[in-house]
Amino acid sequence: MRRRWLQREGWTLVSLLLWGILFLQYWLQGRLGLLIHPNYFGLAIATGFLLVAVSGWQGWRLWRGQVTLVQHVTLLPARCTLSLLIFAAVVGLLMTPRPFNSATAIHRGLEDGLTVTRNSPVAFRLNQRPEERTLIDWIRTLDVYPEPDAYRGLPARIEGFAVHSPQLPQTYLTLTRFVITCCAADAYPVGLPVKLGRSRQAYPQDHWFRVEGRMATEILNDRRQLVLVAETITPIPEPANPFMY
Fold first, then answer.
1. Is the alpha carbon torsion for 166, 178, 99, 237 positive or negative?
2. Pairing outcome for strands 208-220 and 155-163
C-alpha cells in the first residue's frame, strides 16, 4: 500500500511541476494575454512559481522519507484525476493557443449586437480625436450615445479581422475584435459594419485589415446603424495579442 501511495505522490508532484512550468512558459513567451485579462497576469505568474516551489519542496521531503502517509478523498479515482491533470498540462506545453476566428464571433453573438459591450470601461475619453479611436473606443462611444447620426461624416481608422456576416449584403463586412473581461472563455466579439466599394470576397475572412474612411448611417437588417464607409483598406499582420480589454 505504501508503494502505491508513493507512486501516487510522485505523479502528484509531476502534475504540480508541469502546471507550474506551463504558467511560467506562457508568461515568458508572452502568451498569457491569449488566455486571461492582464489584471490576472500577476496571479498566474505567482501561481506558476508557487507550484514549482511546492513540487520541489515536496519532492525533496518525499526523497528524504519525511512525508507522512495520508489518505485523500477525491471525487474521481486518484489515478484518473492525475492522468487528466498531466494530460492537460502536456497538451498546453506542446500546443500554442490560437485567437478566435470569424466562426467563433458569429457563434458568440456578433450578429445579435454589433455595438454592445458587456463591461464598463476603466477609462472613457469622449474627447479623443475620432481618427484616434480604436474599434472598442467606437463601440463604447455608441454605448454612451447610440444615435448613429451624431457621428456621420467623422473620420475613423480602425483595425480588426474580417467577418462575412450572412445578414449583410455582399458589399459589407464586419470589422471585428474580441474583448476579454476575465479569460478567453468569456471573450465576446464586437464589431462595426464596413461598407466596401466592391465584393467582400476581395477581403478574406479572418484576415486582419486597417480600414480608414468616414462614418455614415445605413439601414441594415431593418435598423439604422453606424457604418464605416471605407476609403482605404490595408492588410496588416495579426497582432501578437489580438484581444482588447
1. positive
2. antiparallel
pLDDT digits (tens, 9 = 90+) for 183-200: 888 889 999 999 998 999
CA angle 180, 182, 188 (to 5 degrees): 35
Classify residue 187 by burial, with Cβ atoms within 10 Å: 0-12, 13-18, 19+.
buried
Give me the residues paired with residue 214 across strands: 155, 229
220 contacts 188 by C-beta, under 8 angstroms: no
Q: How many CA atoms lie within 13 A of 106 on its CB side?
A: 13
Q: Please, which residues have CB within 8 angstroms of residue 45's CB and are 6 or more apart in sequence?
A: 23, 24, 27, 32
Instruction: Dump pLDDT digits (tens) for 136-194.
Output: 999 988 888 889 999 999 999 999 999 998 889 999 999 999 998 888 888 899 999 99
Q: In whole angstroms, what is the distance from residue 158 CA to residue 142 CA?
A: 15
pTM of model > 0.90 = no
Cell numbers found for residue 28: 515568458
Do residues 108 and 118 touch, judged by C-beta distance below 8 A?
no
DSSP H helices, the chain, are 2-28, 41-64, 78-94, 102-107, 135-144
The number of CA neighbours under 13 Å toward the Cβ of 62 is 20
All cell numbers assigned to 210: 486597417
Residues 6 or more apart from 82 whose CB is under 8 A from it?
Answer: 8, 11, 12, 15
